[in-house]
What does this fold into?
Amino acid sequence: NLVSLARKVIGVHNDHPNRAQLSLLNLLFRSVGGSEDADLSLGNANGGGSRSKSRSAERSAKRRGELSDSEESSSDTEEEDDDEEVILDEMDTDEWARVVTDLVDDMRHVPATRILLCADPLGAVHQAHELAERERRSREGGSGDADAIIVDGEESKKHASAGAVEYRRVYREFWYALGHVALTDGGMATTGASEFESRSRAGNAKAGKDGPIVRLDAELVKSIILRIIELSPVGQPDVRAAATLAALSMSHAVLDQSAILVKKLDVASRQYAAASKSKSPGKKEGAKAEALKVRMESLKRSVEDLEEVVLGPVVQGLFVHRYRDSNEHVRTMCIESLSRFSLQRPDIFLTDKYLKYFGWMMHDKNPRVRCAAFEGLLRPFKAVHNTAEGKAREVGDENLMIEKIDLSALEHVVGKFLPRIADAVMDPVGQVQEVAMSLMLVLLKGGFLDEVSEDKLWDQTNQRCLAEDAPATVQKDALYF
It folds into this structure.
């Protein structure tokens, strides 16, 4: 059970923060192909870690041939006797560089079939195949760009690894659970684990009921996220991807919890307004109104603390750097997470300040990123439509604040990037065409195109119904124009 595992990690973190964070970093290292030798040492007291800071330096020296045979023998003996717990806060830039160098050196010798997690969501075998395909096309004089690879074809999917896909799902869910448990079970938290289990994932049906003042340990989850983000700028893309996925998954847990508290705050505010109206003129507020006022202030503080965790370390410390990452899978991951942010907290993220990122990434050279960008603008429309039709939400989507989505908030970004959206229905990649045409169709039905009088835009969209390179769904939807 991932929640139980996360609870054990947070239990250790409450007593030994450094040791717990070492274990989390080692999980990340092992996931991307690191060996036992690449682990950060937990010390002999914990059954023997793999390396102290001094071991890292010595191992690097051995690799460069700077140690004599006698020095190697002596250092090996000392490793067995003096292996100490690495203190993360005492590591300088050079020591971190040696750690990452040792990790990457290990990763080079691991076969793709044994790598659990990499930047490619379909696994290391698929990633190696695409790289080889790019190189082959480049040698033959064709394009080595990602657009030359059919990302939505069956041939590419043949090399996907079911095991790697499943591990990625478990990895993501673990970090999500860790984020939730860190908030509710951290040393500074005053809410119980039972409330987390019954409310956080089960729809929170009683979110508006009066209850104890909840205090969540935002500082704990922030400290873990900051530790993981330290690995996000490293040169090896699989390590960047693993760190980015972990931090973004924890941020989704934080936003889900903030959405629960916002709903509680809305109810408490309505109750307080009703209690205040009922009091007689000139008299003090009653006990119920005073209690509601205290509860509202507590909820506001908690919501602000959670928002700061995401808007600070995650958005400013991670997203604004990694959405432009050199690896297309990391860029896609960031845009997909921003899309979910906009459903979790539309009052914050469904604004021009963040919607502009979808518009910018519509021009990305990689079709996966372009798809994610168009999908990011499409998802609010889908969510509102599905809710209006009474469709049940998927598991994990219970706390999305769909009822607070104001589609008119997209008018400015749609108007600014409409020419690019219309051009994308002629994209070289069919999958991008499909998403772009679906977005054009919901914009048409939603009245966003009522003032558009440019014939070129209407004609090029309508003519896709006869285009031989257009998928069947694009041809069908083009008839509406």
